Amino acid sequence: MAGSTFGERLKMTTFGESHGEAVGVIVEGVTPGVELDEAYIQVQMDRRKPGQSSVTTPRKEYDKIRILSGTFEGRTTGTPLCIMLNNTDMRPSAYDDIKSMYRPGHADYTYEKKYGIRDYRGSGRASGRETAARVAAGAVARRLLERRGVSIVAYSLEIGGIRCETFDENVIERNAVRACDPSAAERMVELIERLAAEGNSCGGIVECRIRGVAPGLGEPVFDKLDAELAKAMLSIGAIKGIEFGAGFEAANMRGSEHNDQMDASGFLTNHAGGIIGGISTGDEIVFRVVVKPTSSISSPQRTVDMEGNEREIATIGRHDPCICPRVVPVIEAMACMVIEDHYKRQAALLDE
Amino acid sequence: MAGSTFGERLKMTTFGESHGEAVGVIVEGVTPGVELDEAYIQVQMDRRKPGQSSVTTPRKEYDKIRILSGTFEGRTTGTPLCIMLNNTDMRPSAYDDIKSMYRPGHADYTYEKKYGIRDYRGSGRASGRETAARVAAGAVARRLLERRGVSIVAYSLEIGGIRCETFDENVIERNAVRACDPSAAERMVELIERLAAEGNSCGGIVECRIRGVAPGLGEPVFDKLDAELAKAMLSIGAIKGIEFGAGFEAANMRGSEHNDQMDASGFLTNHAGGIIGGISTGDEIVFRVVVKPTSSISSPQRTVDMEGNEREIATIGRHDPCICPRVVPVIEAMACMVIEDHYKRQAALLDE
Amino acid sequence: MAGSTFGERLKMTTFGESHGEAVGVIVEGVTPGVELDEAYIQVQMDRRKPGQSSVTTPRKEYDKIRILSGTFEGRTTGTPLCIMLNNTDMRPSAYDDIKSMYRPGHADYTYEKKYGIRDYRGSGRASGRETAARVAAGAVARRLLERRGVSIVAYSLEIGGIRCETFDENVIERNAVRACDPSAAERMVELIERLAAEGNSCGGIVECRIRGVAPGLGEPVFDKLDAELAKAMLSIGAIKGIEFGAGFEAANMRGSEHNDQMDASGFLTNHAGGIIGGISTGDEIVFRVVVKPTSSISSPQRTVDMEGNEREIATIGRHDPCICPRVVPVIEAMACMVIEDHYKRQAALLDE
Amino acid sequence: MAGSTFGERLKMTTFGESHGEAVGVIVEGVTPGVELDEAYIQVQMDRRKPGQSSVTTPRKEYDKIRILSGTFEGRTTGTPLCIMLNNTDMRPSAYDDIKSMYRPGHADYTYEKKYGIRDYRGSGRASGRETAARVAAGAVARRLLERRGVSIVAYSLEIGGIRCETFDENVIERNAVRACDPSAAERMVELIERLAAEGNSCGGIVECRIRGVAPGLGEPVFDKLDAELAKAMLSIGAIKGIEFGAGFEAANMRGSEHNDQMDASGFLTNHAGGIIGGISTGDEIVFRVVVKPTSSISSPQRTVDMEGNEREIATIGRHDPCICPRVVPVIEAMACMVIEDHYKRQAALLDE
């Protein structure tokens, strides 16, 4: 696993298991001289932390971050930031009964096959807890992007088959599921509570919009902006697909429909989702990702143990019946990292 | 643009514009001592080359590759392979009328914004011709994967709204659209011919299946196998989305449905698409990508020129009304590169 | 500064300033299943820590490391190790008088020019303290190399003009300067003590020998084994040059002298220093580095302040009058990282 | 061998064996819009090519380069440049007698051990011919540096024990050994001619000076400017050591001597060689490398063959008795790549 580093000029390297001592991240390449403090980062951490509402896991990690390096007198110095979170609510014993069984939908089996050894406590490195480190790094990138006038917002577009029909950015942080339609949000909350009671879970779709990005970002032919965003998103555990702009609908469109024509005021449509030829057009970047249903469910399922014996398993523990609300800040964080990194790469390309 | 290199231990770096002297690729990290000749690679080139049938562009590039380095007496030496294709059917004059206009759906505008200069001849570096270099590199990776017993096949699952209803792998290379259902293939060909006559184009969905992959490939947390495949696929110009296994359908599933349960014989389902926690399960890897309708259409569209004046444009030239048939070998090539690279990374991890 | 990551398949990323909260390192790509605990790493830390003898700075950092992630039940898991050291003996006030002046030989001026901001407390990121993180990572690599039968030893060959005339590996850790000749060691200690009293410092030469390396490591043409070792060594603050085998003496040799001839038992000489064409020969790898005199001296020197005014400065503080003894474990650590990384790269190359 | 790529934002990937079809390089990340043509690059190629004088190998490679991509109408486009040289004077038969023997000082043995297969024709990939590709890439970097006012010059400081005693930059390109002292140059030429007649060879020292570099380049803590230059230089086959500024002399200096003090007009000395803390000071960057004696000599030497039998070998062929004169442009080329790359990285760091 040398896969814990992400980015080229703005770079993060994460560490930490769900029930180890701590999780954290080193962020390299941060522009020096920028005001940044722990409180700024904490705002994003609090959006991801468990226990925010009735629809999220009650595990109590206060997720209080500390900056251990890379700032001086309230400003970044250009040296690596290390941001750390201690794990404070570890209950490894809760996982004792599953240490020899592979939970369906979880990475237990694949980690075992890859490494030959597995920290089974709360999924170890494969836990969603690892994304806390990403959110911390993403907050640093967000700080840099603010100065460029770039804003990034993600939200639940669909949960368990219930789809938002309106879009109001102001309601997103005001409902427990981070949906963009308050009426859909109510039904989503009801559904999730019902599924929790049934010991089941559901998936959904999260949409992300990035505004204010200059045209010209992205590095053909392999490090296209959409390619990098796709990698960033698919690197989040629960995400199984991504589409830009018209996305999979493009399969049913004609060229005459899909092409974004222009007039003197700019593009007339945005089927491309703000990226053409792997380079930002200057228009809003829009993508959607599909979030699979939470793997941890308490209804019984068939599996095998490490010796290959057939077993039945019910995952008892503290889990989110739907990951969408808490994955929203993770998606934003990854998008922040990608966009800021590409601004820096473009600066390197054009520099004289 | 330092984005022309892909891969870590098996690595390709491509060069070349559509109407420059040549396109080509350097492949680094190739296992030494493996039998490989130009004929083996040519087979894949011929699957991507233009002019194969009534539904592809009549541009005549024989796409005859030459290996300039990295082999000796019919075997790889472990040193970089350079594989080159001369451009033989260049007609730059055909593009003179569009050198100052941005074609809708094309990367003309974004290249201009990024680089401040643009090789407008046949889209230059943004041309699909660049993918010929990828297919050459992919053939090298395919050769290495054969020895591991891994096979990769892609095919058109849906074109212009017509979807395959049966799956017969044997028919794929026997119909002009590389569909897996011969009856759907006939209707697809008819549709494409009609669209060509109308000066229009259509999109589609290509599915890819990778078999024989050992469990354990993929490098959490960022270089997950699905994340790397997603980047690889989205780096192909016409592709606007990807989904693994159940994909976007997962948004409508419950955890109890989506989780792949196991018995002593293995996984009972494959909703995960052969990758869990970013690591291969050993099951078939399955993903689908959406291919946008070809941007080049001859029906008139609105655009602007470099001075910002509103103009009308009709892209005359030699183009595929649907990219699916020819993108199939490109998708396979990229998948070959990703899988072989991850075998090598896993070898590095476990090595003692 | 995105330059805080080193290595390809075995990779370290360091963070931390001299007088910040902590310094530390994330090590990625560690072979899973290997026994490793804090005590093993601590042995190396103790060799680098200050206050070991009369010739080293009395700053009291116990340099007690903690492993925060990547091990489970006493074994590595293949996930990133985070190893951290708190800074416990910070006296930032001691540096207040120099915050506006550039100390000769120090990186004060260059950090200011590069970043436009500078954590002046004890040189901040440019402090030798940063190398503690390298030693921790190097200990992990050393653990992996042990299993391969590779051993790495460095020692002071020359200090302040006094050169070792005998070589006894057993005495190295038994004298305060880590010299390979006990009689020279005594004179070196005397010299250093005298220079300390005079407020001056001296340089030296450290030699490193790596044994048991298999032939075949190194990645031409750019990532040659000697090229990577050279980068590793020159990345250590005080080191200003490196030479392999016969080194600069080769300038005075004829081809007939320098060439290492072979007979059936192997190489007859080792002027190449164990690396030919950038690849290990299987013979002992030998290189020497030059260590500049410690920049911090208390005798007065000319400099300027941030406003460009001419000033005089005497660096009062806790410093080593000669860096050689404490840089020895840092050199070994960097060598360990390079060699283990190249074993892993070779495994990736050859893997079938 | 995935080691054929060098650089981060300005990046080159080389290919080619000594007696294969061609050698060449892809240069990525080139600033777009810069005037560049083949003639500009050819000037540098001609400085490296064989057959320039009585002291270089008579092998006749006209080393005529072609740019295959990445420029348009005389300007760079920001897309990868592929620059190629055909091999025109191949005489593989000349190497038949040595295909089963390991030439002392050559990489025959190590390539065999690493790859298990070896292109023995003229050293294959390990040949000095590979550096032609570097010189081509370096010329591109030089073109970019010119616009920044940076100049790079290298020269033979010492050959076969004869050392330059004066420094006149204007004479360097006017003598066959590229020495900076015309009187020493005469004696060097005599020595080399005599050694050639005797079937022997000699080593030397090349010095490089880089002027006009802004302060602030270099990326601590691992990608320090001197560390990257060291790697670049040691990646050249014949180079066995490097030292910056005072170099190995620093071992005999006191801190009070070595420290570069400042007054209002800048640094009073340059013992650091223009780099402190891994970052350029703005002063001249000065380093020296040691060049080993050419391994190919016609006087008989002991070796073994592939079966381990003891043999005697005399390397007949076309070789330079001293590599210094022709390695000068290679050193400059590598330095150009490193410096321009670091300008681009600095632009990425500071970009807002």
From TrEMBL, chains A, B, C, D:
What does the cofactor section's free text say about binding? Reduced FMN (FMNH(2)).
Q: Is the keyword NADP in the record?
A: yes
| GO MF annotation terms | chorismate synthase activity; FMN binding
Binding positions (NADP(+)): 48
Instruction: Enumerate the UniProt keywords alphabetically.
Output: Amino-acid biosynthesis, Aromatic amino acid biosynthesis, FAD, Flavoprotein, FMN, Lyase, NADP
Could you tell me what this protein does?
This reaction introduces a second double bond into the aromatic ring system.
Quaternary state and partners of this protein? Homotetramer.
Name by which UniProt lists this protein: Chorismate synthase
